[in-house]
Amino acid sequence: MSAPAPGFTRGDRAPDFMLPNPDGKFGRFYDRFKGNLVVLFFYPSGRDAAALGELLGFVERGAALADAGARIVAVTRDAVDANRRLVDAHGIDFTLFSDPEGAITRGYGVAGLATLVLDRNQHVLAALPDAPGDGHAAGALAHLLTEPPAVGAPGIVSAQAPVLLIPNVFDAALCERLIGDWRDDHAEGGVRKRGSGTVDPASRAVDHGIKKRLDHNPSDAVNRELIGYVERRIAPEVFKAFNFATTVIEAFCVGAYEAARGDYFHAHRDNMTPQTANRRFAITVNLNEGYEGGGLMFPEYGDQIYSTGTGGAIVFSCSLLHQAPPVTRGRRFVALSFLIDQAGRRRG
């Protein structure tokens, strides 16, 4: 019972849905998230011996998955009454949703068997399209034990900028490709000096009073690819956190802050000119690690440095004062863009 990979892959936000449980009561998928990991298992029917065996694998490993911090949710094409009989016959104690029309299953891009391991914020950590090793449950458990998701240490937060840190927006291969594109084609980025007596603004010298950085502008094809990731992995998170509906995503810029050049971006806001007033949220995706210094600071909220792992994004309101302190060793690569709403689109 082989199946293609689910339509949602690592870094994507798993969408909400509402389906009936074995008692015929409709429940929301997001109601099953209580600050915990979730293992979401899709199978076509309990009448299929292989699918039933995989389902019972989750029953067998339910305690171990719970010890790993995960809850189990299963979705099947079987009707409610069939699920009720299955629950009674096998003592299934996790949520079993009925999707008889297959709308949710198809929406997730699933055909046959598939398992998604989701982090505490509904993002995909792993997609298991086929039975790995001795089953889907074993594969999900193995992933959680060998690659436990990073979780902030318990503590009291007394001051923090209102920003989002979103992991796994770009994968490592994409980050490397963008860095390679930058190496092939980059130029001094920043505001051009006025009054230089030249007709062409692009030929004016760059004013380093606020910013010093080397930038690459991706091609239209690459921009479409990057914007697709924003639509799937960032825009839903921004809507959840800030109730902001993204209408336009600006073209990306790939920038490098190099220690040898003393690159920096002094404290500024991203919406203070007529050309940038329609910007609502800024996106910084970190493309590499291994440098020292750098990161993002928000001076209005303290002196903390905000950073993410490779491929992770920091998203924040363009009204927030922020700065990129100098990199002291190596080179920091970032991909940058902005979100605009419908009103901002009209003004733009």
What would the keywords be for this entry?
single chain; 348 residues; alpha+beta; Jelly Rolls; 26% strand; elongated
Describe the overall structure.
This protein is an alpha+beta fold. The chain has 2 domains: 18-146, Glutaredoxin (3-Layer(aba) Sandwich), CATH 3.40.30.10; 164-190 and 207-347, q2cbj1_9rhob like domain (Jelly Rolls, Sandwich). It is 25% helix and 26% strand. It is built from 9 helices and 21 strands. The strands form 5 sheets. Strands 8, 9, 12, 13, 14, 15, 16, 18, 19 and 21 form a 10-stranded antiparallel β-sheet that branches. It is elongated.
Uncertain spans, ≥5 residues at pLDDT below 50? 194-201
CATH topology of the largest domain: Jelly Rolls
How many beta-strand elements?
21
Q: Please, what is the average pLDDT?
A: 89
Element-by-element helix/strand order: EEEHHEHEHEEHEHEEEEHHEEEEEEEEEH
For the record, the count of structural domains works out to: 2
Number of helical stretches of at least 4 residues: 9
Strand content: 25-35%
The largest β sheet comes out as: 10 strands, antiparallel
Rounded to the nearest angstrom, the radius of gyration is 24 Å
User: What is the correct CATH architecture of the largest domain?
Assistant: Sandwich
CATH superfamily of the largest domain: q2cbj1_9rhob like domain
What's the overall geometry?
A: elongated
How far do the termini sit from each other? 52 Å
Helix content: 10-25%
Task: Give the class from helix and strand content and strand pairing.
Answer: alpha+beta
